[in-house]
Write a structure and sequence with these properties.
With 629 residues, this protein is mainly α. The protein is built from 29 helices and 8 strands. The radius of gyration is 25 Å and the shape is globular.
């Protein structure tokens, strides 16, 4: 599969920065891929994709069994190498089209370009579908013999063995081709409708029309009235467009059900587990552990926060409100750059050097622009090029954390590129490892330099909120998807029913300290993961808990951790999570593994609670001293 963007789970930054100029924010330079949408090189490569794929099919279809007994230019090693070269070429074109489109999804020219390229690449890659299917039909003994006889084929052993895990779920060639070609007018079209609809939405707050990203950011305004107005604006616009989002959700859920049924997947999330190369019991254990921890994590923290804000309970628009201690100054781009690179350098100069390349070569697109895709992501493109990072930078502390997060993805993608187009891509469950680790390095670096108690409290609280957003909320999202896809098998869901599911999982996960007011039942509509990548969301919780355990190993390691960490990232998709974690003494199949990761979050909440107790005791002592004769 060609890589898709990796989206950040970070909560959006504060809206105060949306009204403050940020000078010299970088915009990405895509010329390392192609110079323009009408570049001759792009036209040439599109033609090469079509001609090369057809020629590959003509030469090798029906002949893989014959090739398995040969070496050199007639052996399976050469066949896979030719296939990889085509995947690299198709991936380069697809990456460029996707990045151009993400830069402004409201531009009709870009939208047409993106759609046209998708169609041409779908047509070209239809000629390649036979390859994986036919390779998987070879008997195990034949494949093993080919590994032994052909070193070129043995090079691809991890990819071949990984591919063969799909064997029980693959269909007859012509059905696979039909599914593939219909994706342009099916799933792909509905994804595009969602993106373009969401980009076109406008939300009115105090007479000002805004796009989604700045409006979401107002939910972190220090002023309660601004947060409430933003929430009402979001709910109002979502409600007007709910019919479209309900139709998109129902259609894509049914599309997935059809595919799962034909392929023979037993559980609604099994296809995602297979893609992530993670076992269902491991994910079930993660989800169960997080749900059981709700009272100790989100419920307890939000109850504390409500008291800090002087409330009995917070409304849903107050959940991400900044504490009074939170600095409100805009963080300039150079300061953000220095902060992240310094934290990376303290861990490993080599890691900082890789990350510095993103700044030096304009591989980052940072400004908020009308029409630009919301959120943040790191796109690996192809190994012969380099990754690109997209942000919507507004100069708040969470934006710095998002920068650290996405650059972690970028460093991972650069290091894994040496595995080549077929083996560089990492399953989603492990794709979040480097991003969350980079974020943790940055947070710890900043926390260690902070001596002021109030600033430290604000930093700890913000980190806890980010971790709750990454773990608790993402598992709640996963539970929402499970409800939706399960019930969709019995017929279409109404917007009201979707809203009921949303409120159920949110109430359970957020706890009694959060009041879910009217309008919040529509907020499921804007989450892109539900549309683009069903059941993607648990990967964030997986990654965060994994990194919490990994970071504890790092803090207690005497030496050698960095080398082992780099080797893990360089492995790309060539190893199972059990192999990658073994050098660190970690095992995701151990029921206690998730408890360790969640304990880190609980420990930060304990520290916040202790700070409050200490402050209260100090105030009490001061008052007693002041009134003592």
């Amino acid at each position: 599969m060609r890589p898709e963007p990796v989206f950040s789970a970070q909560a959006p930054a504060s809206g105060a920065a949306a009204r403050t100029p940020l000078a010299d924010l970088p915009e990405w330079n895509l010329t390392d891929l192609y110079t323009a949408m009408d570049a001759p090189e792009l036209k040439r490569d599109l033609e090469r994709c079509a001609a090369g794929s057809a020629a590959f099919e003509e030469r090798w279809k029906g002949r893989l069994a014959e090739a398995s007994g040969k070496t050199g230019d007639e052996g399976l090693g050469k066949v896979v190498a030719d296939y990889e070269a085509l995947e690299e070429l198709i991936g380069r074109v697809a990456s460029y089209a996707g990045l151009v489109y993400a830069g402004d999804t409201s531009d009709p020219k870009r939208a047409k370009f993106y759609g046209d390229v998708q169609e041409k690449l779908t047509d070209a890659s239809a000629h390649l579908i036979f390859f994986g299917l036919e390779l998987n039909r070879l008997e195990d003994a034949v494949v093993d013999a080919a590994f032994a006889a052909d070193p070129a084929f043995a090079h691809y052993r991890p990819w071949v063995l990984d591919l063969r895990k799909d064997k029980p779920f693959q269909l007859e060639d012509r059905i696979e081709q039909l599914f593939h070609e219909k994706s342009v007018t099916g799933r792909g079209a509905w994804n595009r409708l969602f993106d373009e609809t969401m980009t076109a939405l406008r939300f009115t707050v105090d007479g000002e029309e805004m796009t989604l990203e700045p409006t979401l950011n107002l939910l972190q305004s220090p002023e309660e009235a601004v947060r409430r107005k933003a929430a009402e604006a979001l709910a109002g616009t979502f409600k007007v467009n709910l019919r479209v989002f309900t139709l998109i959700t129902n259609t894509l859920a049914k599309d997935k059900e059809i595919s799962d049924r034909w392929r023979g997947f037993a559980d609604i999330a099994d296809s995602r587990h297979l893609a992530n190369r993670v076992e269902r019991p491991v994910v079930d254990a993660l989800a169960k552990a997080v749900r059981e921890a709700y009272p100790r994590l989100s419920h307890r923290y939000y109850a504390m926060k409500a008291k800090w804000l002087g409330m009995d309970a917070m409304n849903h628009w107050d959940r991400n409100a900044p504490l009074p201690e939170t600095p409100q100054a805009v963080i300039g781009w150079e300061e953000a750059r220095h902060t992240v690179l310094s934290a990376y350098h303290d861990f490993s100069p080599d890691m900082a050097e890789i990350a510095r390349g993103f700044f030096d070569h304009n591989w980052i697109d940072a400004p908020v622009r009308p029409g630009k895709a919301p959120g943040a992501f790191a796109h690996p493109t192809v190994p012969s090029a380099h990754p690109y990072v997209m942000l919507n930078y507004m100069g708040k502390p969470r934006d710095v954390m998002t920068l650290a997060h996405e650059l972690g993805h970028g460093v991972h993608q650069v290091l894994a590129a040496g595995q080549g187009a077929l083996m560089a891509q990492t399953p989603l469950t492990l794709a979040e490892t480097a991003s969350v680790f980079g974020e943790m390095l940055t947070f710890r670096s900043l926390l260690d330099r902070t001596k002021d108690r109030r600033e430290r409290k604000a930093m700890l609280a913000q980190k806890v909120e980010d971790m709750i957003n990454t773990v608790v909320r993402q598992i709640a999202f996963y539970e929402f998807e499970r409800k939706v896809h399960t019930e969709r098998r019995n017929g279409e869901l109404t917007a009201d029913r979707l809203g009921e599911f949303w409120l159920e999982v949110q109430a359970e996960s957020l706890g009694p300290a959060i009041r879910l007011r009217d309008g919040y039942e529509t907020f499921w509509a804007y989450v892109p993961h539900f549309i683009h990548s069903p059941f993607y969301v648990y990967a964030y919780a997986f990654g965060d808990c994994l990194v919490n355990s990994l970071f504890a190993v790092y803090q207690n390691a005497e030496s050698g951790f960095q080398d082992k960490y780099f080797e893990m990232l360089k492995a790309g998709g060539t190893k199972h999570h059990s192999e990658l974690l073994a050098p660190f003494g970690l095992d995701a199949t151990d029921p206690g593994f998730w408890a360790k990761g969640l304990a880190v979050i609980e420990g930060l909440i304990d520290e916040l609670e202790a700070m409050e107790t200490t402050a209260a005791d100090a105030n009490s002592a001061a008052m007693t001293g002041a009134t003592t004769p």
